[in-house]
């Protein structure tokens, strides 16, 4: 099975409700990039990468497409057999840019799964469950309203909530955390996500002012070094998200003991294959983590769910997919759906998503024949 052609498509994914608000940025529509890898024996594999705007991480949609333009010509004619060899080939074309390579990694696993007749979860080591928990992300908003949505989402079955804070005064952040806790109590696990926005001082004060509330503190400050200084000065467990820019950052955070868990993004870590390494490092140290991406449609959602199904359930902080914030699906027959706060793991061979023909329009780039 050799690669004959690579088509690159784009789709705009507008945010339901208008704005997704985080400390680091407000976004209104996300620009997703899809790669379609066509083989000489007529199989088609799909991958996707969709940064949540250009500010959240050092990634952006045009950057992904520029990186794909460097990589794609060198992949034409390659055998889809060894994922490692394909990764090596991509590294020989371009240094870094894992978030673009991730789209290819997903497409290669999709093809290999179809060829072998197994779902991608099997290629990642094997599923431990046939459905995985999701979590709901509450955007930065007024305390009362945030608490009301939190209570609704718990009623809808979500076992975990992420409360976004920062980018405003401390009083509102503290009030939001208290109101959400009063509204949901122990009915859901809570993460409080600063999205890099708090100073060290503000993180310490928020920790003290919410002392009795059980939550994990996600990416409170901008850098790994700032977050490291919080260790021993705050009482809430600390999770890293944005700072885990690659596998090495995860290894460093684990070995320095500065993270109690992680919010992982599949494309930021360079794809599903690279994620299996950090997943296993976390298993060695009993560290919890989520299986998310920053944004994206059903292909990214499926990738997150396949990966999440391979994580020991007691350490799985859920899969975050953008479904609650976007309209429609790529594959009407097999959409990735959150039901009762959980997501069924696709059982079809490959990634389990076949976008409707023509739904992305004409390719923005084509490589090969
Ligand atoms: C909740 N998310 C997974 C979606 C947005 O990309 C932000 C992100 C996070 O945890 O920071
Ligand atoms: Mg986060």
From TrEMBL:
Keywords: Isomerase. The keyword Repeat does not apply. Residues 143-237 form the Mandelate racemase/muconate lactonizing enzyme C-terminal domain. Pfam families: MR_MLE_C, MR_MLE_N. The keyword rRNA processing does not apply. InterPro entries: 4R-hPro_betaine_2-epimerase, DgoD-like, Enolase-like_C_sf, Enolase-like_N, Enolase_C-like, Mandelate_racemase_C, Mandelate_racemase_N_dom. Its EC number is 5.1.1.22. Gene3D superfamilies: Enolase-like C-terminal domain (3.20.20.120), Enolase-like, N-terminal domain (3.30.390.10). It is an enzyme of class 5 (isomerase). One of its GO terms (molecular function) is isomerase activity. This is 4-hydroxyproline betaine 2-epimerase.
């Amino acid at each position: 099975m050799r690669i004959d052609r690579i088509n690159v498509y784009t789709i705009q994914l507008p945010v339901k409700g208008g704005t997704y608000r985080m400390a680091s940025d407000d976004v209104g529509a996300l620009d997703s990039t899809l790669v379609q890898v066509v083989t000489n024996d007529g199989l088609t594999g799909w991958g996707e990468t969709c940064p949540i705007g250009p500010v959240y991480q050092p990634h952006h949609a045009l950057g992904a497409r520029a990186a794909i333009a460097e990589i794609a010509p060198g992949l034409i004619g390659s055998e889809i057999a060894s994922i490692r060899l394909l990764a090596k080939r991509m590294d020989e074309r371009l240094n870094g840019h894992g978030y673009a390579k991730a789209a290819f990694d997903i497409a290669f696993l999709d093809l290999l799964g179809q060829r072998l007749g197994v779902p991608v979860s099997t290629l990642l080591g094997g599923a431990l469950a046939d459905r995985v928990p999701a979590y709901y992300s509450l955007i930065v908003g007024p305390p009362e309203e945030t608490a009301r949505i939190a209570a609704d989402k718990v009623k809808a079955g979500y076992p975990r909530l992420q409360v976004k804070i920062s980018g405003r005064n401390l009083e509102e952040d503290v009030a939001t955390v208290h109101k959400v806790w009063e509204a949901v109590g122990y009915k859901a696990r809570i993460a409080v996500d600063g999205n890099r926005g708090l100073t060290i001082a503000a993180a310490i004060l928020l920790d003290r002012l919410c002392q009795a509330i059980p939550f994990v503190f996600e990416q409170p400050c901008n850098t790994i070094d700032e977050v490291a200084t919080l260790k021993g000065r705050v009482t809430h467990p600390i999770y890293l998200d944005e700072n885990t820019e690659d596998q090495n950052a995860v290894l460093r955070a684990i070995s320095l003991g500065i993270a109690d868990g992680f919010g992982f993004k599949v494309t930021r870590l360079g794809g599903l294959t690279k994620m299996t390494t950090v997943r296993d490092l976390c298993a060695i140290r009993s560290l919890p983590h989520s299986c998310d991406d920053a944004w994206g449609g059903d292909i990214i959602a499926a990738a997150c769910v396949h990966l999440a199904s391979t994580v020991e359930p007691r350490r799985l902080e859920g899969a975050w997919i953008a479904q609650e914030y976007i309209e429609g699906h790529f594959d009407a027959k097999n959409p990735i759906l959150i039901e009762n706060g959980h997501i069924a793991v696709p059982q079809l061979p490959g990634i389990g998503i076949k976008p409707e023909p023509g739904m992305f329009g004409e390719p923005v780039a084509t490589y090969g024949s």
